[in-house]
Each structure stands twice: as C-alpha cells, then as structure tokens.
Amino acid sequence: MPQITLNDCQFHYTDQGSGPPLLLLHGLGSSEQDWEYQLPALTPHYRVLCLDMRGHGGTDKTGKGYSIDLFARDCLAFIQAMDLHKPHIVGLSMGGMIAFQLATDAPDVPASLTIVNSAPEVIPRKPLEYWMAGKRLFFAHVLPMSAIAKGLARLLFPKPEQEHHRQTFIDRWCANDRKSYLASLRAIVGWGVSNRLERINCPVLVVSADRDYTPVEHKREYVSHLGDARLEVIADSRHATPVDQPDTFNQLLLDFLAEVDSGPAAAITDPAQAGLTSP
C-alpha cells in the first residue's frame, strides 16, 4: 500500500490511471473504498488519487486534535507532495466539507469541485438542529460501532436487493477505530465556511440525492451563493449516491469534468497568456 508522511502523520493513498489529476475525498467513517464503483469509469481518463483521511482506512489513527481545517491542510500537503497541478477535487459528505475548506483556504489550487451530499457548514442554528446534533453525538458515544453500522446500513440501503451493499457497509464500518471516528464526528459539528464561499473561483458541481439526509432545497440555497455552480439531483438515491446510483453519478461527473477541461481556462497553456509573467 502506498504511504506518505504529511504533517507528522502517515497516510495511505492510491494513485491510478493517467491524465489530468483527480483527487477523491471519502466520507466520515469510510476510506478510499468509497470510490470502488467510480474507478473503472474514471481511470481511463484521469489520474485518480484517493487519500484516506487521518483516522480512517489505512492512515494513522490518533483520535486527537481532528478538525476539518486540519483535514484540508493534509490534503493541500498531499497535493503539493504529489506535485498535482490544478487537480479536480471530488468530496462525498465529510469529503465535501474538506473540499469546501480547501477551496476557501487555497482558491487557486482546484481546477473544479464536485460536492456530493454535503454542505459548507454543519452549524446548528435552530432548536431542532441543536437537538438533532446533540442526539447524533450522544448515540455515537454510547452505542457500539456494530449498532451504528447496522442502523446506518438500513438507512443508506433499504431495498431488499441492496443486501450486498448493507453487509459490505457494516463490515467496513465495524473496522473503524472508535476513538478516531468520534473525533472526526466532533470535528464536523460546528464547522462551517458559508461566510467565505465567495472565495471559491473554480467551477462547482453539487450532486444531491433526492433522499439525502438534508433536503435538496438546502443545497439549492447554498449553490445560489456560489459563482460558477450548478446543482444536479439524482433520483432514487440516498446519502451514498456513488454506491447506490454509480452509473448516473459517473456520467454526471465525467460530463462535468470534460466541460471544465475543455473550457477557456483549460486552453491557456502559455504562462504569458495566463498573466503569470511580467510584460
């Protein structure tokens, strides 16, 4: 397994395919395995890199000091260490939050963002939102990982024909380091960059399942505050859209990336044309 040390932590990553760089960021309690149904579609066209966040997958698990800001700094360090020029960045759930943080901290880094079933903040503002956040944190701390896994699996994959997805999810979720999972969950609650969205200057595709945890209208609202951004809704899907609707998702993503790669900014290859040299 490829390993790299960044910010005093050893990370597991994968690096497959060739072409423009494409960085895939997984969700909470998951790993690069989130993307198993995307790799066959993406690697013929892109150099696809998947990074396990600290506390996840094959990366070191300390369970201390986690934050979305730290995860984003890890990603930036990875981009620099791997010499990735203007990578496309795709983030699912927590990975989408990391992508938002990275793009607001370093707006010149991404060629594009694809945000899947995510948001630019998880800040409770209403009594019901405080109740829901508190309930989630409480049950995460008191229930065993196996109970959490079974409950989430039923929510994500409720159909009888999705038994394979349910069992795969349970097996992978139970392999989580509990301390690191809880630290990552705490890093999400209270985080937000909604007040900095104007800093994002690359094209953005927001993908929402029609039956995601949060309503489509929530995504539509924050998309309205982005510049070059669009919202696409995938029908008959829940939070794990890349798994439950892989073909539809892959085609949306490939079409978006092809459009960005063929756009005016991609056509500028001469530094003088880009205004990067003095007259």
Which features does this protein show?
279 residues; Rossmann fold; 8-stranded mixed sheet; 16% strand; 3-oxoadipate enol-lactonase; AB_hydrolase_fold; AB_hydrolase_sf
Helix and strand layout, with pairings?
Elements: E1 3-6, E2 9-16, E3 21-25, H1 39-42, E4 47-51, H2 68-81, E5 88-92, H3 94-105, E6 112-116, H4 127-142, H5 145-156, H6 163-174, H7 178-188, E7 204-209, H8 216-223, E8 229-234, H9 241-244, H10 246-261, H11 264-267
Parallel strand pairs: 3-4, 3-5, 5-6, 6-7, 7-8
Antiparallel strand pairs: 1-2, 2-4
Helix pairs in contact: 2-3, 5-6
InterPro entries: AB_hydrolase_1, AB_hydrolase_fold, AB_hydrolase_sf
GO cellular component, one term: membrane
Protein name: 3-oxoadipate enol-lactonase
Task: Offer a concise description of the structure.
This protein has 279 residues and is of the alpha/beta class. Helices cover 41% and strands 16% of the residues. The protein has a domain at 3-122 and 193-267: Rossmann fold, CATH 3.40.50.
How would you sum up this structure, described in words?
Residues 22-251 form the AB hydrolase-1 domain. This protein is globular. The protein has helices at 39-42, 68-81, 94-105, 127-142, 145-156, 163-174, 178-188, 216-223, 241-244, 246-261, 264-267; strands at 3-6, 9-16, 21-25, 47-51, 88-92, 112-116, 204-209, 229-234. It has an eight-stranded mixed beta sheet, with helices on both faces. It has eleven helices and eight strands. It has a domain at 3-122 and 193-267: 3-Layer(aba) Sandwich (Rossmann fold). The longest helix has 16 residues, at 127-142. Strand 5 (88-92), helix 3 (94-105) and strand 6 form a beta-alpha-beta unit. Helix 2 crosses helix 3 and helix 5 packs antiparallel against helix 6 (163-174). 41% of the residues lie in helices and 16% in strands. With 279 residues, it is of the alpha/beta class. The model is unreliable at 267-279 (pLDDT under 50).
